[in-house]
Amino acid sequence: MTTVTELTLDELVSQAQSLVREIELLKGNRLSLDLTRGKPATDQLDLSSGLESTIEGNYIAEDGTDTRNYGQLRGIPEARALGAEIMEVDPDDVICWGNSSLALMYLSVELALKSGLWSDQRRWRNSKAPKILTPVPGYDRHFTLCEHLGIEMINVPMDADGPDITSVRNLIADDPDIKGIWCVPKYSNPTGCTYSDERVATLAALPGTAAADDFVVLWDNAYAVHDFQFPRKPLAPLLDLARVEGCEDQVLLFASTSKITLASAGLGFVAGSGKVLDTITERLNVSSVGPDKVNQLRHARFLRGRLEAHMAGHAEIVKPKFELVEEILSEGLKELDIASWSRPEGGYFVSLDTRPGLAGIVGALAAETGLAITPPGATFPYGVDPEDKNLRIAPTFASLTDLKTAMEVFVLCVKLATFEDEIKKR
Ligand SMILES: Cc1ncc(COP(=O)(O)O)c(C=O)c1O
User: Fold this and answer.
1) Pick from 351, 380, 411: nearest CA to 157
2) Atom of ligand 1 at shortest distance to CA of 256?
3) What domains sit in the chain, N to C, each tagged with a CATH number?
């Protein structure tokens, strides 16, 4: 096979025609395939069925707490230790709360905006137009959260080591309205990259270099332990490094067990300095008399001492799906040289770039055949991908059989969109 630019016009036209015929045939098949959201598949959820039998009448935590009763706003010690193991911090630096790290992110950002994280006069709303840096492509729900709170977003490009640090530095050095940066440091959503040690060290020191004195690094480590191979890939310790730089009050780390145990009934974690955790605890105390500690106890008993073995079980299910995606993309698109994509070693997503201007067309073509992909643009704030080229593939939820069909359809759509684009350009 030759690259698309080496094909003659006649070859392009004839191949495009046969692709149209194939796609028309598919439309008749009334497919219903979904690669939109990064959800665990049923067999992954089944890995956690052992959670059920961990209590069996014994509700007492290590410190003697009866987990059925009110109290323990920061969570029981063994749940905080579990969070610490996942986030690679000290248990004293962790609050275990609720089932969703996203909810903790919302709470923390809202606090930073409205009443401040530090028991002083600093709050983001003192700025007329608080802004946040959003490395792109990124996680759509970070963008929704900011949009909802009226925080403007500024895109910075991602590279293989993390957010482009020169852009970040230049932006924050002069603009006191820039209040923070979102980071998904391991198996980033969607690019799959893990931040390099050097990049983490720079990010840990970043608050000290910002024009804003209330700049916060929001470290959403959703895929901290979601490796395909073990021992797990290391990530430099942000909180420790921030402490060395005197920036520990301006970093907040998040994680959860949503994609470790049960997506709807896991544990959420936030980690940070004592000062910031005090503010968060005070805020939690306003709205609740304590978290679901029975679930915390179930999780701690189920996962402690066997976290890696449990994640290896996920990898066994998830890795073949990523391999299949790679195989089909490679077979269909590599030699034509019409797209580039990530080959992650963990996490939940593959990020694919088409030629500029074609992601929307691919999304529309896919929808016509009955294949739902994450809406083009969703990986950028306000749903606007300036180059209209990024597409996020979420392979975990589908069965291997459905995934194979879905990816074959996807490849046909990318090819047709690109061939038609090339024909127009001749
Ligand atoms: C980067 C990232 N953060 C957070 C979440 C959601 O986490 P939780 O279920 O803990 O709210 C996801 C889920 O897809 C995610 O990809």
Assistant:
1) 380
2) 10
3) 4-44+309-425 (3.90.1150.10), 61-304 (3.40.640.10)
